[in-house]
Specification:
The structure holds two protein chains of two kinds.
Chain A (H helix, E strand, L loop, with lengths): L1 E2 L2 E2 H21 L3 H11 L4 H25 L5 H28 L2 H26 L23 H8 L5 E4 L3 E4 H18 L4 H12 L3 H25 L5 H21 L9 H23 L4 H36 L5
Antiparallel strand pairs in A: 1-2, 3-4
Helix pairs in contact in A: 1-10, 1-12, 2-3, 2-12, 3-9, 3-10, 4-5, 4-7, 4-9, 5-11, 6-8, 7-8, 8-9, 11-12
Chain B lengths: L8 H40 L1
The chains are: A mainly alpha, B mainly alpha.
Chain lengths: 344, 49
């Protein structure tokens, strides 16, 4: 029996894969194209279809996750719109750099090396912060989203950026006040990397909103997702113009991720990310290693390394989404024990 | 690949993206209702299990 031109087994695989990604997307505001596109490529879909369908899927999932974060009051629309302006400009410049490097015949290798070091660098930084465990800029999903941010919760780099009081100053949710130019500079830098690497950029933007601008993590995640609605929508539309979006891939993936995104988004108000951020860092390190392995495979023409790369990506994603669900359940039980001491 | 008609490429692309958006909104609503109906029961079961 077939549905949407897919066997039931393939359909179940896509729905399950969507569920996994939805949890990560809802919780971290990242992980869409980073996971879907390589998986579709290894499954044998043409690059255009893998990238276009991945973007369309990211667009749909970000709509769902943004709606959920909006319900939780975790989207700063003003910051989101400013980020879109800066990011769009950065993406254009990033693309121009790629075109220039292609002319020199250096694009592929430089992009891959940058991707590996960037993913690995952010992963190592987040893991280090988690292991350090003294908060000092640690991620806290339970941070207050309306009142002024606790000075101890604001990372040092963000404090420095916030200290540059170049008018006009913009008031953001979470009691954060930052110069408009600083927001645009951060948005431009993340857009530049996004356009240069050809990725959605959630894994760059979400940490940048927290570590550089200083907004609380729940708002960083919600606002990042809001921005992805626009970038994912535009990107998938452009690919759809060339027939690069396959609905038989996108629809089942979305059916799974819609549920996963609800679980992930809801978990942001339950889980203390101190329990989770080490996994987030390790997932990025796993992603970095996966890209490195894939590149080595293509240089030495070893197709088996493509599968090893996919296994690394999927394994990291499974580990982290499992940790999110496990920590949510543990937090709920802990909450019950705290509220009724006699249970002990 | 699913055919969405033989209109211009722009309209085809807009229809595809519209279909994805529609599915996202419908799923958000449907899962929202399911969450309202069953969410508390599931959370209570997880707390006590």
């Amino acid at each position: 029996m077939e549905l949407l031109g897919l066997s039931l087994a393939m359909l179940a695989l896509f729905v399950g894969f969507g569920l996994l990604i939805g949890v990560l997307f809802g919780f971290f505001g990242m992980g869409g194209s980073f996971l879907v596109t390589p998986a579709l490529l290894v499954m044998g879909y043409p690059t255009r279809v893998a990238v276009g369908s991945g973007l369309a899927f990211v667009f749909g999932t970000s709509v769902i996750a943004t709606l959920k974060h909006r319900d939780l009051g975790q989207v700063d629309y003003k910051l989101g719109l400013l980020m879109i302006v800066g990011t769009t400009a950065g993406i254009e410049v990033g693309k121009e750099i790629v075109v220039h490097l292609e002319g020199l015949g250096l694009a592929g290798s430089i992009i891959s090396v940058t991707y590996v070091f960037l993913l690995g660098g952010i992963g190592a930084f987040v893991t280090y912060e988690a292991l350090k465990g003294d908060s000092g800029g640690g991620i806290d999903h339970e941070a207050d989203t309306d009142g002024p941010a606790d000075a101890d919760d604001i990372p040092d780099i963000a404090k420095t950026i916030q200290s540059y009081r170049v008018p006009p100053m913009i008031d953001l949710r979470g009691g954060v006040t930052v110069s408009l130019w600083m927001i645009l500079a951060v948005a431009f830098a993340t857009g530049l990397l996004s356009g240069f690497l050809g990725v959605g950029g959630g894994f760059i933007r979400m940490p940048a909103l927290f570590y550089l601008v200083g907004v609380p993590v729940p708002i960083a995640v919600g606002t990042d997702l809001f921005e992805i609605v626009f970038s994912g929508g535009l990107g998938s539309f452009l690919y759809a113009l060339d027939g690069g979006v396959d609905l038989s891939i996108v629809l089942p993936l979305l059916a799974g991720s819609a549920f996963g995104a609800r679980v992930g988004s809801a978990a942001t108000s339950i889980v203390d990310e101190d329990d989770i951020k080490i996994y987030f860092g390790l997932m990025l390190l796993g992603g970095s290693l996966a890209v490195a392995v894939r590149e080595i495979g293509s240089v030495y023409e070893l197709p088996i390394l493509n599968r090893v790369s996919l296994a690394l990506i999927l394994g990291s994603a499974l580990l982290v989404s499992g940790a999110v669900v496990y920590s949510s359940i543990t937090a709920l039980r802990e909450e019950r024990r705290t509220s009724s001491p006699s249970v002990e | 690949m699913i055919e969405v008609g033989s209109l211009g490429a722009t309209l085809d692309a807009a229809t595809l993206i519209g279909a994805v958006l529609l599915e996202a909104i419908v799923l958000y609503g449907v899962y929202g209702v399911v969450e309202q109906l069953l969410g508390h029961r599931v959370v209570d079961r997880l707390r006590t299990a």
